[in-house]
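Sharing in case it's useful to others searching the archive later.

Someone asked me privately for the predicted structure of 6-phosphogluconate dehydrogenase, decarboxylating, so I'm posting the question and my answer publicly. Question first, with the sequence:
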Amino acid sequence: ELAEIGLVGLGTMGAALALNIAEKGHRIAVWNRTGTVTDAFVAEAGELAARVVPTHSLQALVDAIAPPRAIILMVPAGDAVDQQIAALRPLLGKDDLIIDAGNANFHDTERRSAEAEVQGVSFIGMGVSGGEEGARHGPSIMGGGPRAAWDRVAPILTSIAARHGEVPCATWMGPGGAGHFVKTVHNGIEYADMQMITEVYGLMRDGLGMAAPAIADVFDGWNAGALRSYLVEISGAVARAVDPETGAAMLDVILDAAGQKGTGRWTAIEAQHLAAPVPVIEAAVMARNVSSRLAERQAGQAAFGAGPQPVSLTVEDLEGALMAGKILCYAQGFTMLDAASKTFGWGVPLPECAKVWRAGCIIRSDMLDHMAQALTEDPGRNLILAPTFAALLKQHHGALRKVVAAAALNGHGLPALSAGLAWFDLMRTARGTANMIQGQRDFFGAHGFDRLDGKPVHHGPWGGHA
Ligand code: NDP
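And my answer, the predicted structure tokens:
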């Protein structure tokens, strides 16, 4: 009996995805570069092994799948994907389909899509979120490529995806690199969400003198309210954990230098290319970069003083600040998606992005459900102007202001929350200050400017300097 689908790359994500596919009743053929990994995978698949077809050559993999074939690649992003496409393509026909499910840079996906069109094998670039656990039991899936190709594999993908109520979190976002782009912005928002939580953690630890278990209680409390989300939930669990070796709070033995694989950086870089303001995400990437400069930070504290000082804030202030910061960050992320969608002509359905992130992925939260509703009402409106979120911002921006001000006066760096607040204040200032920039530009570069009164005078009276 031929398999419905194939998969290349039985690493962490590929193995989990293959088991998920088999569990949902689909026969799947698998191949891995290192054959012993394939054998071990089947040996450990238990009763699901009955629906797994192990193969030991790419030709055998292709032969094991019913045409028109669909093959998922779950190998490291970059060269490995190009190598696998090059190896598979000669074995495939024009109705066959290759699906790259790794964390590709969307520029690579755009290129591969264009190459696929020439070479006559369909190509889908698909973002998969939720880590190993998500891949195994229900990831959030963001697809991009030819709509007809997506529709062909959609029944399998929706069957393995996470569910929000009855709605599966597997959605076609548009042609070419749209799916991988949406996944990239998801990861950028993930960086920002994590950073804002980290900033209020710092205020609790260094500003309010709270120990890790008390901080865990606060996160647990927030997770029962409007901030309910996977990231707040796991922050509580992280704060509660105890180091088995020393008995100390786990948080207090973890080195304060954050790792990153680059998707947050891609979001910041693409935002700059698109002139889309995402200061909270940029600040979050910056903060990770600063965190890894441990020796410099130590020298900085020695040179400039004693680090963060006590603050007079309440836990309710912090909760309000986090609420406001989160809304501002997501508003920026959706604006960026909209800008990319228009620039690349993808037609990304913004409400569907909010919906696909409601379950399975790292940034899943209750608030995303309300965001999906607000974007459905009016996808073209900035999220901060949607009535639900405008009301929340009116309620909480005072807390954000208070927290950022107290932090600034007492030496706590809050890059993400303060960047969010600065953006918010710019966004509610009808008469801004860029008239000075325009004056300066005209002064030194004769760049000209528009006038408020609409008169056609395009240069200032800068005399001999102009
Ligand atoms: P792993 O390192 O666990 O697995 C990599 C797999 O790719 C292995 O099966 C490996 O085979 C194979 N492979 C490596 N290089 C090549 C190559 N040149 N040619 C063919 N096969 C190769 O990676 P993950 O499963 O963690 O990640 C896979 C993709 O999924 C990445 O793009 C990652 O960014 C993305 N991703 C990962 C998440 C995670 O939480 N881990 C979450 C979401 C996306 P072999 O056994 O021979 O080494």
